[in-house]
Structures are given as structure tokens and as C-alpha cells.
Amino acid sequence: MAWVQGGVEVRGSLADVTELAFEEADPVREFPSYRGQRNFPGLYWAATMLRHVGFESWLERDHAISMDFDPRVMWFASQPFWLSWTSPEGVRLSHAPDYFARRTDGTAVVVDCRPEARRSKPRDLAKFAGTQMACEAVGWDFQLVGEIDRVRVANLRWLAGFRHPRFAQAGLEEVVGAAFAVPGPLVGQAAQVGDPILVLPVVFHLLWCGRLTTDLSRPLGDHSLVSRVEG
After folding, report:
1. Which of 5, 27, 72, 101 could bridge to 76 as Cys pair (CB 3.0-4.6 Å)?
2. Helix 196-209 vs helix 150-160: angle between axes, to the nearest 10 degrees?
3. Which domains, from first to last, does the chain contain?
4. For the whole model, what pTM was predicted?
5. What does the pLDDT profile of the chain (231 residues) look like in tens digits?
6. Cα–Cα distances in angstroms (integers) from residue 188 to residues 19, 65, 174, 179, 208, in the given order
């Protein structure tokens, strides 16, 4: 396998990498953008690490948002390494997984993003299977993920707009938290604290940070029931 360290490509075997922090790795591939391009690459600013993470599709971006929102994820990186191997049929294969994430309990997960409708090509399936085998060999989890539930991902996209620390206002956060100690409707409860234009960004930031909670399986709206997370 190969990875980038200090701007230089490094090569090694699986046995050499179990202690490496791939969650902080530089991407082994670039994310080019050009006229007529059919996919949608870009950079997502992750509040978890206060740094940009690359993506090559809206699906990858949505999963970056999801990992950024997940309190179990402490750090993640895109295109963290190349895996290379020879298939039983003698075909040389290589693959750069989409993400490597480190969880708060120290475990790791390698993530590939691919819609279910686009998983039929034998070569792609062989790459995913080979990646899973490599992960199992070193004790990492492997996830092949598709589209996130459309309601949940719409809610996450909205809340991600308030992920930046600039939306944290210490004095107001305490008042907002106290207001939602008793569950109440999103806008109505916020209006009791003050001008919704000022208060709602703080509410959304606290929802993103997990200090407030609501049912994200339902569309987020004025009457969504919001409550404070105790502890």
C-alpha cells in the first residue's frame, strides 16, 4: 500500500501500518474540477477537525457531513491511502478508499461510498471485497455505504450550515439550553428567548453539536420538538 506523509509518497505492507494515524493523512489523489465534469468534487470544512476534507461526489460530501456530525468520530480523512494487490485470477488491482475515520474509542473504519445502483461492475466489486479483506487483516471496520435517508440528510445539510464555532455564543447558549430543558417547538421556544433571527442560529449550532436534540428522521421545521440533552 502507499500513502502520503509530509508531501512524500511512502510505501509499505499492511503489517507496517496498523499504528499509523491515517485519519490525519493527506489525500493520495487530487480532486480536480473541469468544465463538463459529470461528478461534483470539492472541499468540505469539517468542524470536528477544523480542516478541509475532499470529496468527489455529492454522496461523498453527504457522508463527510454525517461523519462530522457523529459524536463517535474524532477525526477523518479522505482518500487516505492506495491499496494494491493481485486477484486470484492474476489481475492487478488498486483502490483508494473514500474515507478513513478514527472513532473516540480508538477503533477505525474505512468507508467507500457508492450508490447501490452502481455496484454491479465486477471490477468494482472485486475492489470493495479486497478492501474489506485488507481491513479485516489489520482490525479495521469496513463500510460500503450508499444514499443516506433523504429526510435525514436534508436535515444534516441544513444543520451543517451552522457547524462553525462562530455560531457559538457562550451567554446565549446557556439561556437557549435552559429554555429547551422542557421540550418545545423549535421556533416558538426560540422566540421566548429573544429575536429568532439572533436565537435560531444558536439553536441550530447546539443541535449540530449535540447539546440539543430533535427527531432528524422527520423534516426539521418550525414545530419540530426540540429538547436539551442532559449530561
Report:
1. 101
2. 120
3. 2-145 (3.40.1350.10), 150-228 (no CATH)
4. 0.94
5. 999 988 899 999 988 888 899 999 999 988 877 787 778 899 999 999 999 999 999 999 999 999 999 999 999 999 999 999 998 888 899 999 999 999 999 999 999 999 998 888 889 999 999 999 999 999 999 999 999 999 999 999 999 999 999 999 888 999 999 999 999 999 999 999 999 999 999 999 999 999 999 999 999 999 999 999 997
6. 50, 28, 17, 11, 19
